[in-house]
From TrEMBL:
Keywords: Plasmid. InterPro entries: Ketoacyl_synth_N, Thiolase-like. It comes from Bacillus cereus. Residues 44-177 form the Beta-ketoacyl synthase-like N-terminal domain. The keyword Magnesium does not apply. This is Beta-ketoacyl synthase N-terminal-like domain-containing protein. Pfam families: ketoacyl-synt. GO terms for molecular function: acyltransferase activity.
Protein backbone atom coordinates (compact mmCIF):
# COMPACT_ATOMS: atom_id res chain seq x y z
CA UNK A 1 0.00 0.00 0.00
CA UNK A 2 1.39 3.40 -0.97
CA UNK A 3 1.21 6.90 0.49
CA UNK A 4 0.42 9.52 -2.16
CA UNK A 5 -0.35 12.53 0.04
CA UNK A 6 0.46 13.84 3.51
CA UNK A 7 -1.15 16.69 5.46
CA UNK A 8 -0.68 17.97 8.98
CA UNK A 9 -1.83 20.63 11.41
CA UNK A 10 0.58 20.63 14.35
CA UNK A 11 2.38 23.08 16.65
CA UNK A 12 5.34 24.67 14.86
CA UNK A 13 7.80 23.14 17.31
CA UNK A 14 6.52 19.62 16.63
CA UNK A 15 8.06 18.18 13.48
CA UNK A 16 10.19 15.29 12.30
CA UNK A 17 13.41 17.00 13.39
CA UNK A 18 12.17 17.73 16.91
CA UNK A 19 10.95 14.15 17.28
CA UNK A 20 14.23 12.68 16.01
CA UNK A 21 16.26 14.88 18.34
CA UNK A 22 14.14 13.95 21.36
CA UNK A 23 13.09 17.51 22.15
CA UNK A 24 10.93 17.41 25.28
CA UNK A 25 7.38 18.74 25.34
CA UNK A 26 5.61 20.08 28.40
CA UNK A 27 1.95 20.77 28.97
CA UNK A 28 -0.42 20.86 26.01
CA UNK A 29 1.24 21.84 22.71
CA UNK A 30 -1.32 23.51 20.42
CA UNK A 31 -1.18 24.58 16.75
CA UNK A 32 -0.58 28.33 16.72
CA UNK A 33 -3.40 30.62 15.48
CA UNK A 34 -5.38 27.75 13.98
CA UNK A 35 -8.27 28.95 11.79
CA UNK A 36 -10.23 26.48 9.67
CA UNK A 37 -11.09 29.26 7.20
CA UNK A 38 -7.44 29.34 6.12
CA UNK A 39 -7.88 25.82 4.78
CA UNK A 40 -11.41 25.62 3.41
CA UNK A 41 -14.52 27.77 3.07
CA UNK A 42 -17.53 25.78 4.19
CA UNK A 43 -20.58 27.01 6.06
CA UNK A 44 -21.28 25.62 9.52
CA UNK A 45 -17.79 24.53 10.56
CA UNK A 46 -17.62 26.94 13.49
CA UNK A 47 -20.15 24.87 15.43
CA UNK A 48 -17.96 21.75 15.22
CA UNK A 49 -15.38 20.60 17.76
CA UNK A 50 -11.74 21.57 17.50
CA UNK A 51 -10.79 18.00 16.60
CA UNK A 52 -13.21 17.91 13.67
CA UNK A 53 -11.86 21.15 12.24
CA UNK A 54 -8.26 20.04 12.74
CA UNK A 55 -9.00 16.83 10.85
CA UNK A 56 -10.74 18.67 8.01
CA UNK A 57 -7.78 21.07 7.73
CA UNK A 58 -5.15 18.33 7.61
CA UNK A 59 -7.19 16.48 4.99
CA UNK A 60 -7.16 19.64 2.86
CA UNK A 61 -3.35 19.67 3.01
CA UNK A 62 -3.14 15.98 2.12
CA UNK A 63 -5.50 16.33 -0.85
CA UNK A 64 -3.43 19.24 -2.17
CA UNK A 65 -0.26 17.20 -1.70
CA UNK A 66 -1.68 14.20 -3.57
CA UNK A 67 -2.96 16.37 -6.42
CA UNK A 68 -4.14 14.55 -9.53
CA UNK A 69 -3.43 11.15 -7.97
CA UNK A 70 -6.32 11.85 -5.62
CA UNK A 71 -8.54 13.92 -7.90
CA UNK A 72 -8.75 11.20 -10.55
CA UNK A 73 -10.85 9.00 -8.23
CA UNK A 74 -14.65 9.03 -8.10
CA UNK A 75 -16.23 10.13 -4.77
CA UNK A 76 -17.86 6.72 -4.22
CA UNK A 77 -14.47 5.00 -4.49
CA UNK A 78 -12.87 7.12 -1.77
CA UNK A 79 -13.00 6.19 1.92
CA UNK A 80 -12.40 8.26 5.06
CA UNK A 81 -10.95 6.65 8.19
CA UNK A 82 -10.28 8.56 11.39
CA UNK A 83 -8.35 7.50 14.48
CA UNK A 84 -9.29 9.40 17.62
CA UNK A 85 -9.75 8.81 21.35
CA UNK A 86 -11.47 11.28 23.66
CA UNK A 87 -12.86 13.71 21.09
CA UNK A 88 -16.47 12.39 21.22
CA UNK A 89 -16.53 13.22 24.93
CA UNK A 90 -15.57 16.79 24.08
CA UNK A 91 -18.51 16.93 21.67
CA UNK A 92 -20.86 15.58 24.31
CA UNK A 93 -19.61 18.19 26.78
CA UNK A 94 -20.25 20.99 24.27
CA UNK A 95 -23.76 19.73 23.66
CA UNK A 96 -24.73 19.12 27.28
CA UNK A 97 -23.17 22.24 28.82
CA UNK A 98 -26.23 24.30 27.91
CA UNK A 99 -28.47 21.77 29.64
CA UNK A 100 -26.45 21.84 32.84
CA UNK A 101 -25.97 25.60 32.90
CA UNK A 102 -29.48 26.63 31.80
CA UNK A 103 -32.19 24.27 30.52
CA UNK A 104 -32.72 21.85 27.66
CA UNK A 105 -34.56 24.64 25.84
CA UNK A 106 -31.20 26.19 24.98
CA UNK A 107 -29.58 23.09 23.50
CA UNK A 108 -28.13 23.79 20.06
CA UNK A 109 -29.09 21.23 17.39
CA UNK A 110 -25.96 22.28 15.48
CA UNK A 111 -23.83 20.76 18.23
CA UNK A 112 -25.63 17.41 18.29
CA UNK A 113 -23.70 15.88 15.38
CA UNK A 114 -20.45 16.27 17.34
CA UNK A 115 -21.71 13.85 20.00
CA UNK A 116 -21.80 10.97 17.50
CA UNK A 117 -18.72 8.72 17.55
CA UNK A 118 -18.41 8.86 13.76
CA UNK A 119 -18.81 12.63 13.50
CA UNK A 120 -15.26 13.50 12.39
CA UNK A 121 -15.13 11.08 9.46
CA UNK A 122 -18.74 11.92 8.63
CA UNK A 123 -18.08 15.66 8.48
CA UNK A 124 -14.92 15.13 6.44
CA UNK A 125 -16.95 13.13 3.92
CA UNK A 126 -19.58 15.87 3.74
CA UNK A 127 -17.11 18.72 3.35
CA UNK A 128 -15.11 17.01 0.59
CA UNK A 129 -18.05 15.39 -1.19
CA UNK A 130 -16.93 11.83 -0.48
CA UNK A 131 -19.61 9.15 -0.71
CA UNK A 132 -17.53 6.04 -0.02
CA UNK A 133 -17.23 4.30 3.34
CA UNK A 134 -16.29 6.35 6.39
CA UNK A 135 -15.36 5.06 9.82
CA UNK A 136 -13.86 6.13 13.15
CA UNK A 137 -11.50 3.97 15.20
CA UNK A 138 -11.03 4.50 18.93
CA UNK A 139 -8.29 2.28 20.35
CA UNK A 140 -5.96 4.47 22.41
CA UNK A 141 -2.46 4.96 21.03
CA UNK A 142 -3.29 2.54 18.22
CA UNK A 143 -6.27 4.57 16.97
CA UNK A 144 -4.42 6.10 14.01
CA UNK A 145 -2.58 2.94 13.00
CA UNK A 146 -5.70 0.80 13.43
CA UNK A 147 -7.56 3.23 11.15
CA UNK A 148 -4.73 2.85 8.64
CA UNK A 149 -4.94 -0.93 8.86
CA UNK A 150 -8.71 -0.83 8.34
CA UNK A 151 -8.27 1.41 5.30
CA UNK A 152 -5.76 -0.96 3.68
CA UNK A 153 -8.16 -3.86 4.15
CA UNK A 154 -10.98 -1.97 2.42
CA UNK A 155 -8.68 -1.16 -0.51
CA UNK A 156 -7.34 -4.71 -0.74
CA UNK A 157 -10.92 -6.03 -0.79
CA UNK A 158 -11.78 -3.62 -3.64
CA UNK A 159 -14.43 -1.75 -1.66
CA UNK A 160 -12.62 1.52 -2.38
CA UNK A 161 -9.64 2.61 -4.49
CA UNK A 162 -8.16 5.29 -2.26
CA UNK A 163 -8.40 6.13 1.45
CA UNK A 164 -7.97 9.27 3.50
CA UNK A 165 -6.65 8.28 6.93
CA UNK A 166 -6.45 10.83 9.74
CA UNK A 167 -5.22 10.72 13.33
CA UNK A 168 -6.49 13.63 15.41
CA UNK A 169 -6.63 14.88 19.00
CA UNK A 170 -8.42 18.09 19.97
CA UNK A 171 -7.51 18.00 23.67
CA UNK A 172 -10.35 20.20 24.84
CA UNK A 173 -11.48 20.63 28.43
CA UNK A 174 -12.93 17.17 28.96
CA UNK A 175 -9.97 15.40 27.34
CA UNK A 176 -7.41 17.30 29.39
CA UNK A 177 -9.35 16.58 32.59
CA UNK A 178 -9.15 12.87 31.76
CA UNK A 179 -5.44 13.04 31.00
CA UNK A 180 -4.80 14.99 34.19
CA UNK A 181 -6.45 12.28 36.26
CA UNK A 182 -4.18 9.67 34.72
CA UNK A 183 -0.91 11.56 34.62
CA UNK A 184 -0.51 14.56 36.89
CA UNK A 185 1.92 16.36 34.59
CA UNK A 186 0.14 16.46 31.24
CA UNK A 187 2.42 16.23 28.19
CA UNK A 188 0.44 15.98 24.99
CA UNK A 189 0.13 17.33 21.45
CA UNK A 190 -2.98 18.79 19.86
CA UNK A 191 -3.32 18.44 16.10
CA UNK A 192 -4.05 16.20 13.15
CA UNK A 193 -2.01 14.21 10.64
CA UNK A 194 -3.50 12.78 7.44
CA UNK A 195 -2.14 10.35 4.87
CA UNK A 196 -3.81 9.36 1.60
CA UNK A 197 -3.14 5.81 0.44
CA UNK A 198 -3.77 3.69 -2.65
CA UNK A 199 -2.20 0.75 -4.48
CA UNK A 200 -0.48 2.95 -7.09
CA UNK A 201 3.25 2.20 -7.12
CA UNK A 202 4.21 5.74 -8.14
CA UNK A 203 4.52 7.22 -4.66
CA UNK A 204 7.16 8.48 -2.25
CA UNK A 205 6.47 5.97 0.50
CA UNK A 206 5.01 2.51 0.87
CA UNK A 207 3.45 0.68 3.80
CA UNK A 208 5.06 -2.73 3.64
CA UNK A 209 3.51 -4.25 6.74
CA UNK A 210 1.00 -3.58 9.51
CA UNK A 211 1.02 -6.33 12.09
CA UNK A 212 -1.32 -6.02 15.08
CA UNK A 213 -1.57 -8.18 18.19
CA UNK A 214 -2.73 -7.97 21.81
CA UNK A 215 -1.02 -8.29 25.16
CA UNK A 216 -2.25 -8.33 28.73
CA UNK A 217 -0.60 -7.51 32.05
CA UNK A 218 0.73 -11.03 32.49
CA UNK A 219 2.23 -11.39 29.00
CA UNK A 220 3.90 -8.08 28.15
CA UNK A 221 6.84 -10.10 26.83
CA UNK A 222 4.70 -10.76 23.74
CA UNK A 223 5.73 -7.31 22.52
CA UNK A 224 9.39 -8.31 22.75
CA UNK A 225 8.79 -11.64 21.03
CA UNK A 226 7.19 -9.88 18.06
CA UNK A 227 9.93 -7.25 17.94
CA UNK A 228 12.62 -9.94 18.16
CA UNK A 229 11.21 -11.64 15.07
CA UNK A 230 11.63 -8.41 13.10
CA UNK A 231 15.10 -7.73 14.51
CA UNK A 232 16.36 -11.14 13.40
CA UNK A 233 15.26 -10.44 9.82
CA UNK A 234 17.30 -7.18 9.76
CA UNK A 235 15.18 -5.79 6.94
CA UNK A 236 15.00 -2.20 8.18
CA UNK A 237 17.36 0.68 8.92
CA UNK A 238 15.49 2.61 11.60
CA UNK A 239 13.38 1.74 14.64
CA UNK A 240 10.94 4.22 16.17
CA UNK A 241 9.18 3.46 19.45
CA UNK A 242 8.02 5.20 22.61
CA UNK A 243 4.36 5.28 23.65
CA UNK A 244 4.71 6.87 27.11
CA UNK A 245 3.68 3.75 28.99
CA UNK A 246 5.35 0.89 30.87
CA UNK A 247 6.10 -0.97 27.66
CA UNK A 248 8.73 1.62 26.71
CA UNK A 249 11.17 0.46 29.39
CA UNK A 250 10.57 -3.16 28.42
CA UNK A 251 11.52 -2.36 24.82
CA UNK A 252 14.46 -0.17 25.89
CA UNK A 253 15.88 -2.94 28.06
CA UNK A 254 15.61 -5.43 25.20
CA UNK A 255 17.34 -3.06 22.77
CA UNK A 256 20.18 -2.36 25.23
CA UNK A 257 20.89 -6.08 25.47
CA UNK A 258 20.44 -6.86 21.78
CA UNK A 259 23.55 -7.11 19.62
CA UNK A 260 21.38 -6.78 16.51
CA UNK A 261 20.25 -3.28 17.50
CA UNK A 262 23.79 -1.86 17.20
CA UNK A 263 23.45 -1.41 13.44
CA UNK A 264 20.02 0.26 13.63
CA UNK A 265 19.15 3.93 14.08
CA UNK A 266 16.89 3.86 17.17
CA UNK A 267 14.55 6.74 18.07
CA UNK A 268 12.58 6.80 21.33
CA UNK A 269 9.76 9.34 20.98
CA UNK A 270 8.38 9.20 24.54
CA UNK A 271 9.76 12.62 25.56
CA UNK A 272 9.05 14.38 22.25
CA UNK A 273 5.50 13.05 21.77
CA UNK A 274 4.25 12.45 25.30
CA UNK A 275 0.75 11.05 25.79
CA UNK A 276 -0.63 12.01 22.39
CA UNK A 277 -3.03 9.08 22.03
CA UNK A 278 -4.23 8.66 18.43
CA UNK A 279 -1.50 11.00 17.15
CA UNK A 280 1.26 8.88 18.67
CA UNK A 281 1.57 6.42 15.79
CA UNK A 282 1.13 9.04 13.07
CA UNK A 283 3.79 11.33 14.56
CA UNK A 284 6.13 8.36 14.31
CA UNK A 285 4.90 7.83 10.75
CA UNK A 286 5.74 11.35 9.53
CA UNK A 287 9.15 10.99 11.15
CA UNK A 288 9.70 7.74 9.28
CA UNK A 289 8.79 9.43 5.99
CA UNK A 290 11.70 11.84 6.36
CA UNK A 291 14.25 9.13 7.12
CA UNK A 292 14.14 7.98 3.46
CA UNK A 293 14.79 4.34 4.30
CA UNK A 294 12.98 1.34 5.72
CA UNK A 295 11.68 2.07 9.21
CA UNK A 296 10.03 -0.15 11.78
CA UNK A 297 7.45 1.61 13.98
CA UNK A 298 6.39 0.01 17.26
CA UNK A 299 3.25 1.43 18.88
CA UNK A 300 1.72 0.06 22.07
CA UNK A 301 -1.08 0.59 24.52
CA UNK A 302 -0.45 0.07 28.23
CA UNK A 303 -2.69 -2.99 27.98
CA UNK A 304 -4.43 -4.25 24.85
CA UNK A 305 -3.67 -3.72 21.18
CA UNK A 306 -0.13 -3.19 19.87
CA UNK A 307 1.18 -2.82 16.35
CA UNK A 308 4.36 -3.08 14.31
CA UNK A 309 4.36 -1.02 11.13
CA UNK A 310 7.04 -1.09 8.43
CA UNK A 311 7.46 1.95 6.18
CA UNK A 312 9.70 2.31 3.12
CA UNK A 313 10.27 5.99 2.42
CA UNK A 314 11.70 6.81 -1.01
CA UNK A 315 12.82 9.98 -2.75
CA UNK A 316 10.15 12.70 -2.71
CA UNK A 317 10.79 15.50 -0.23
CA UNK A 318 8.17 15.70 2.48
CA UNK A 319 7.67 19.02 4.26
CA UNK A 320 7.03 18.10 7.88
Amino acid sequence: MNIIGVGKVLPLKVNADSIKSGMKINGVSEPEDFDIKKYIKYKGLRSLTKATNLAIASISDAINDAGVKYNQHRPERIGVFVGSTLNPTDGALHFMSDVYETTADFVSPLKFSSTVLNNISGWASIVYGITGVNSTVISGNLSGIDALKMATEYINNNVIDVAIVTAVEGNEENSIYHLGNNIHNVKTITGAVTVIIEKNEDSYASIEKIYSFQHYEENREKIILKLEEEMKNKQFNNLIYGSSNNNDELISAYLRNSMVSQDINIINTAESIGTSNALSGFLKLITALELKEKTLIVETNEIGTDSILKINSKSKEVSL
